[in-house]
Amino acid sequence: MKRFLSPVWALLAFLLSCPSVFYAQDDPQAADLLSSISAKMQQYKNIHAVYTSRMVDVQSDFEMEQGGEVWIEGDRYHLELGDYVIVCDGQTVWTYEPEMGECYIDDAETVAEDGVDPARMFTIWEDGFKKVWKGEVEMEGKAYSRVDLHPEGAEDRGFHTIQCIIDAEALQVVKLVVKGREGTDVFYLVESFDGDGMVPEGAFSFDKARFPGTTMIDNRL
């Protein structure tokens, strides 16, 4: 049976895909900083973040901005990206597309194999990237640290670099810039970040009753 892939997953695959094999020596300063952030993330039972994403296609002079909000708890997540709603209970992923009135159902393991895992949004560097220390940058009058991530097998990826702008004092990523190979860049600006915050009831399960008339497309069959 043909497997339908939601367009929003195609976008997330471009942003978040990474291989599973580490391949090069890292800058010690970059590796130490990112390791400290990972350790801090592991201390939280859950994570809630609000961010703005902006896609810029220089070649076609196209720009699109979307608001995003994500709740993460272990391998479970609830992501709202623009009008899209993406829910994972750790085993199953539901992707609701309001424009089409459709919801795609996938195995979480299959989605992860496609390189798409919002549960790793704040620890994406842990596997398959070379970490390069780029020094200090200034943003809105404040100094931040910048670490660049270069994926293994970059020639086969839709992007060649992810720039991580980090508040080294708070051990928090405040901005990500995904540099596309075809001239399309995506900017993530984290507006708020909470660890061990309040998670909405039922956040990690998809309630079809909230979306009457939705066509369910089960890719697991």
Kindly describe this structure:
With 221 residues, the chain is mostly beta strands. It has a single domain (7-218), classed as Lipoprotein localisation LolA/LolB/LppX (outer membrane lipoprotein receptor (LolB), chain A, Clam), CATH 2.50.20. 14% of the residues lie in helices and 46% in strands. The chain contains 3 helices and 12 strands, in the order ααββββββαββββββ. It has helices at 7-16, 28-43, 108-113; strands at 47-57, 62-73, 76-81, 84-88, 92-97, 102-107, 129-139, 142-151, 159-167, 172-180, 184-195, 215-218. The chain has a 12-stranded mixed beta sheet. β10 (172-180) and β11 form a beta hairpin. Mean pLDDT is 85; it is low at 1-5 and 17-23.
Q: What's the short story on this structure?
A:
The protein contains 3 helices and 12 strands.
Task: Name its key features.
single chain; 221 residues; mainly beta; outer membrane lipoprotein receptor (LolB), chain A; 12-stranded mixed beta sheet; 12 strands; 14% helix; 46% strand; globular
Q: Strand sequence of the main sheet, in spatial order?
A: 7-8-9-10-11-1-2-3-4-5-6-12
Helix count, DSSP H or I runs of 4 or more residues: 3
Shape: globular
Looking at the structure, the CATH topology is outer membrane lipoprotein receptor (LolB), chain A
The helix-and-strand class reads mainly beta
Low-confidence segments, ≥5 residues, pLDDT <50? 1-5, 17-23
Which sheet architecture does the biggest sheet show? 12 strands, mixed
Q: Would you identify the CATH H-level superfamily?
A: Lipoprotein localisation LolA/LolB/LppX
Instruction: Determine and state the CATH class.
Output: Mainly Beta
Distance between the termini: 7 Å
Count the strands? 12
Question: What level of helicity do the residues show?
Answer: 10-25%
Mean pLDDT: 85
Report the C-alpha radius of gyration, rounded.
Answer: 17 Å
Topology pattern, helix = H, strand = E: HHEEEEEEHEEEEEE
CATH architecture: Clam
- Taken together, the total number of domains comes to 1
